[in-house]
Design a protein that fits this description.
DNA-binding, homodimer, 10 helices, alpha+beta, Nucleoside Triphosphate Pyrophosphohydrolase, about 35% helix
Chain lengths: ~270, ~270
DNA sequence: GCAAAAGTGTTTCGTTTACACCCATGC
DNA sequence: GCATGGGTGTAAACGAAACACTTTTGC
């Protein structure tokens, strides 16, 4: 087999990308991992990623690999940095450029289809391949820092969400608990949330939900008691079912204005 | 000439490092640039940096290049990130990992010796080679963000400094003005500054200064009036001469404690 | 109807801001 | 002795934190 060869005057490290994808199921912050099919670290879990092509930026490469390996088609990632320890890959000198990404609940559902990809709650993450444990630690530090200045929460929630959902997310990321009343005040005072009117129930329940809320009442009223648990079991891993409460959406325009004037700061 | 060749199955980008070195002369924040001696961008100014060796991390490579090109022998740098635009180097695909470093006043004096290295005040920086203008913008954003969480100021000042010096530095970095009294309060309340006692004048003026403060008085008293300007001209770029006021030093141990408990925040 | 979560205001406390005068030094 | 910069305290305004009860929803 005649493979093309590439020759350089000086040795060069290989360059890969890795992407730490965060998702939120309403309770736990999760990350998306791939089970490695080949050595080294065969059978171990690792971040989706791979070798960088010559005609793409690191961002583009990371997004391409993410799609190839997990089916997730995201648009925004944020660079964490380059990891360049000499022995981080036992095969040869490999430098990786790490990113993190935020997946919305609706995207998370679809992502699970892909081959060996699986979501892990942060406190259930196994030992990872290469230096990915270290990369994860650094990425978490970065996420916790960024969340004070950027509307990260909204990248992890669907178009519409409730304040308590948002609060649980902040608590999951930062590992602390907030007073509900103070959280309401603080987040609403920023002005970056719009209350969503109820006049269209289709939006209520997100794209996955097709019944109107009146239909639920009708359903529950007409179906025998023993059939209800089955319905709710079938939906138990889909939180869109229990979307009660006032829904809000993220007002990006307003946020960009505040950001422009350096006037945005979320102090928790 | 028989040069060693390195051959790979897939093409690889070249990897370089670049280092944005900040210094502070008491009034302006400055950066250290190198005049390029070869194409591309021959004659243009650029950050010190160069190709990464296979047996060193990016950090080590950046520090090595910094020493080779400017004579500055620093120990700490902070990664800003990888820059990977496909066409950022007209010769070929080159990815650079950028860092920033902080040089103390005493180190800055020595750094000037090196060949083509020169300090530029931030508002006098010329058009830079490659994408270094962009890298500088990103690095400044990073520095302004970091300064809220890390004692960056102290990396740019000598062992001992006065509160007004520190204030000027913060003002230079953030581009704003602070009320003097409030700055005193805020910075002292953190508890990370120790007041330095006057009982040893040698420390007063830093390592470059060998005269005791009484000697300055004696000098000025005994030398004829016309000779003073010459003395002060010779020293005019060396602010250690006019170190008046109460001096403080950075209490790293105390800072590390606060940092440990996530209790450090410098809110300006 | 019972349990769990959503929604809402007020008071207390600490932090931030604004502001003016005296002192020491350099020249 | 004049100009420049260093050093200090207090009052007002604002934002953060603590706190409990009622309503709605799910089942």
């Amino acid at each position: 087999m005649e493979t093309q060869q590439y020759t350089y005057k000086y040795p060069r490290p290989a360059v890969t990308t890795d992407c730490v994808v965060f998702g939120f199921d309403g309770h736990d912050l999760k990350i998306l991992l791939i089970e490695r099919g080949i050595e080294p670290f065969k059978g171990a879990w690792a971040f989706p990623g791979g070798f960088l092509n010559m005609d793409e930026t690191a961002e583009q490469g990371a997004l391409r690999e993410l799609k190839e390996e997990t089916g997730l088609d995201l648009r925004y990632i944020k660079q964490v940095g380059a990891f360049s320890d000499v022995d981080r890959d036992p095969r040869s000198r490999v430098i990786t450029i790490a990113f993190y990404a935020l997946a919305k609940k609706s995207e998370v559902q679809g992502g699970d289809d892909a081959a060996k990809a699986q979501w892990f709650a942060l406190n259930e993450v196994p030992r990872l391949a290469f230096d990915h444990d270290y990369i994860l630690r650094k990425t978490m530090e970065r996420l916790r820092k960024d969340i004070h200045f950027e509307p990260i929460g909204f990248g992890l929630l669907d178009e519409q969400f409730t304040i308590p959902e948002l609060q649980r997310l902040y608590e999951a990321i930062l590992g602390v608990q907030f007073d509900r009343r103070n959280f309401y005040k603080k987040i609403l005072q920023t002005g970056i949330l719009d209350e969503v009117e109820d006049d269209d129930d289709r939006h209520y329940y997100g794209e996955h939900r097709e019944m109107r809320s009146m239909d639920i009442g009708a359903l529950f009223g007409s179906i025998a008691a023993e059939s209800r648990p089955s319905y709710s079991a079938a939906r138990s891993d889909d939180d869109s079912r229990r979307r009660k409460g006032t829904r809000f959406s993220f007002n990006k325009k307003r946020y960009d204005q505040l950001k422009e004037d350096n006037n945005f700061r979320l102090e928790f």
